Amino acid sequence: MSTAGSEPSPLAGGEPSTLTAGEPGAPPARGAREKRPAPPSGLVIVDKPAGWTSHDVVGRMRRLAGTRRVGHAGTLDPMATGVLVVGVEKATRLLGHLALTEKGYDATIRLGVTTNTDDAEGEVLAEVAAGQVTDEAIHAVVAALTGPIEQVPPQVSAIKVNGERAYKRARAGEEVELRARPVTVHAFEITAVRREGDAVEVDASVRCTSGTYIRSLARDLGAGLGVGGHLTRLRRTRVGPYDLSVARTLDELAHDCVILPMAEAVAAAFPRMDVSAEDARLIGHGGRLASAGLGSGPIGVFGPDGALLALVEERGRSVKPLAVFVP
Fold first, then answer.
1. Phi and psi (nearest 5°) for 82?
2. Rounded to 5, what percent of the chain is helix, strand, coil?
3. Which helix (H) or strand (E) holds 162?
4. Inter-residue contact 138 to 225 (CB < 8 Å)
5. Helical axes 135-144 vs 214-224, angle rounded to 10°
6. Whole-angstrom Cα distance, residue 247 to residue 72?
7. By CB count within 10 A, which of 174, 243, 309, 325 is most buried?
8. How far apart are CA 113 and CA 131, in angstroms?
């Protein structure tokens, strides 16, 4: 019978170990943590739940992936659900470029009620009857809000005003003046109009460029109809090539943390440029290559073996590296 506190020897024959902690084959020192290998670099497509901030999701993904090197592309408000693209390890360098891609949303807009945040989480500023608004009028204003438009962001947006986030100034009671910005609403389709007395709710599907605020579309739809309006539901259905069909809930990811490899992520999101071994060596050292005529925006560069080498953009007759991923 072994004495209390003793441990069986790891060596054959029961001989005591003479290896010092830290030597090859030696057990780890007491209290020492074994260093976990870094997770693979890639993207995780999360179906964000309501009530969570994007930062909350990043915090959860850091624990699930086992690394602090995690970020997200394109913030979703706590009330919103749907596609949130999360980058792990080297893929965090892709996020700024992915955030600029086209996005899709399903939304519900309540007419007749104006809030100070343009959504259901704000304080009600005014209420008027909206039952008299016709379907024809709704479609007419929606048509005016489709295509290239000038849009004023919400008071509680993250845009900086004199070095401070607009939402911080607005929540301190300050009236924030934000300039209209050009955005493009590729599609603004009404999918349902529900009426109950003087209340009117409009369901819509929106496809738009990065930087478009769906809350502002809700506000401007209500303003154009003369009754006011705000956003009551928002679900992001797509970010670039990634949609809800590939998104996973946090509970699903807790059981199986699916990380889309970097090469697959870039090939799905950006034009592809395959290069020779010599050009691969050149781009690996930050050099420029001849233009491939693939247009504006980021381009993924792949070596002869299919490995992802870099993300580049065309500048005149050459392409300039935006991010190099080879060692």
1. 110, -160
2. 25, 35, 45
3. none
4. yes
5. 130
6. 14
7. 309
8. 12
- Is residue 233 a contact partner of residue 108, using CB atoms and an 8 Å limit? yes
Element (H, E) at 182: strand 181-196
Angle (CA) 46-50-52 rounded to 5° is 75
Instruction: Give phi and psi for 268, each to the nearest 5.
Output: -80, -30
Q: What is the pLDDT of residues 95-127, one digit of tens each?
A: 989 888 899 999 999 999 999 889 998 889 999
Share of the chain above pLDDT 70, in %: 82
Query: In sequence order, what are the residues at sequence separation of 6 or more whose Cβ sits closer than 8 angstroms to the Cβ of residue 263?
Result: 302, 306, 307, 308
Measured CA to CA, the distance from residue 111 to residue 228 in angstroms comes to: 6
Interatomic CA distance for residues 294 and 80, integer angstroms = 35
Give the separation between CA 164 and CA 324, rounded to whole angstroms: 32
The C-alpha atoms of residue 84 and residue 74 are separated, in whole angstroms, by 7
Q: What pLDDT digit, counting tens, does each position of 49-73 carry? A: 999 999 999 999 999 999 999 999 9
Amino acid at 312: V
Which residues are catalytic, by number? 77
Tell the burial category of 286 from Cβ atoms under 10 Å away from its Cβ (0-12, 13-18, 19+).
Answer: exposed
What distance lies between CA 306 and its chain's CA centroid?
Answer: 26
